[in-house]
Protein: Peptidase M14 domain-containing protein
Amino acid sequence: MLDFWRWSILSLTPLFLGAALAYPTQRPLSTSTHKSDSPANYTSFELRRYGISNHEDLTRVIDLVNQANIDIWHLTPSHVDVHTNTTTSLPELLAARRYTTLPHSFPYNYSYHPETSSSPRRSKIDLSSLQDNEFHRTYHTYEEIDQFVVALASQYPELVEIVWLGASSEQRDVFAIRIGTRSRGGKRHKKHKHKHTSWAICPFTEAVHDYATNLISRLVGLVGLISRGHATTMRDLYSNPRFDAITQSRPIKDRVVIQGAQHAREWIASATALYVAHALVAPEDEAGSLRHLLDDFDFTIIPVPNPDGYAYTWTTDRLWYKNRMPLQADKPGLDECQGVDMNRNWGYHWNTSDDGFSGGPQGPCSHWYPGAYPFQAPEVTAIANYIRRTPKIRAFLDLRSYGQQLMYPYSYSCEQVAPHAENLIEAAIGATKALRETHGVPYTSGASCELLYPAPGNIIDWMYEDAKVKYSYSLMLRDTGTYGFLLPPRYIQPVGEETAAAVKSLAKFIENVGL
Structure:
């Protein structure tokens, strides 16, 4: 049998080489097109904060806002932030309520960036240093993020690999950055001295050799072939959910998964995910480096889980929220609406009646539409499948904005207490302390439902209950309403540093307290 497999690999090697060489020299992770829309104009909008006195008052305000189809930016038991058109009539009861106008600064001269179908010209991104790096001084398009990820894997091939998770509804790639060392280091793991296959971007011959070695020795598994300089993934090799995206012969470490903006307009979430990825590979002697965490943990960073929505915020509507899958409209005069709220499309307590609002679940044209069924969003399905087939995930951090809050399960109900609440609370207290001590900016912690509102179908509930990831959190990044979703780029670096400190604190807690 062994000779048969060896013969099979030798016979198939030219096919793998031919497929790899067939790719163009410079190929982005994906390209796609969507129908043309006129760019959104928010010149007559303002951000209003309505005070809330109790739960009944909250429900009343939410009903009024939903009737007018007003965009809710932030919702807590004490206030609701809504982004409303000042030239549009509001429901009488809502118009009569007192509110505070928040001094958010929408860039009314904002210049949208048309997407091109051709591959972008790649510029050199130097990631040798974390501090004062030009990349972390501004926000970036999906294509520029692609270039960052390719540069990260090219410059740190011993630590980084690109993993293809699936395709969005518009056929963009949903991808992850997997970061780890070839062997376990640190005081606890010095006894592990195995020979390991290489991660990440490697020459074709080395990749084929690794593929043959793994397949012959284990008779299962698939290896991604990524060429140095080409930085392309062979998507066919990742299509079978029974296998890990790239086979490893090394011992499996505990894993941490960090995710960027599920909601497209939350740019700071994706920017922060990229900063943390950079911090994980930065040299240990550099301030802010998290590389020492790789002694005991592997990390998966999903920087753009909603690629279609994120791209749409750059081309057409800066404040777009959902993904971009087409749906049958539920409003007169409309043929279709677009988008599912990805953070309500997860399968644990999806679309339950206990959503905190008397109006119940919203229709396809609403901001918070949870989908017709759980995992309807292809992006959610792709990420869930990766989580299901990835062993030893110990912690999950969903980066969001805004509010400066670190939240743990449950989201779907305020009546239920997570079985591991004591550990979740203790770890969260340490992480919020680390967040605050970095730049003096206060963060609060608590159960998601209590800090915000009941929201079924939330990712942290699914991670905690279905995926059995004990330390599952959502981190609402800066600020508390001054800029909201339009946080200026000068905050990217400090928010990244705060978040890196929180990640370090959570990892240390898990290492010391255990599971």
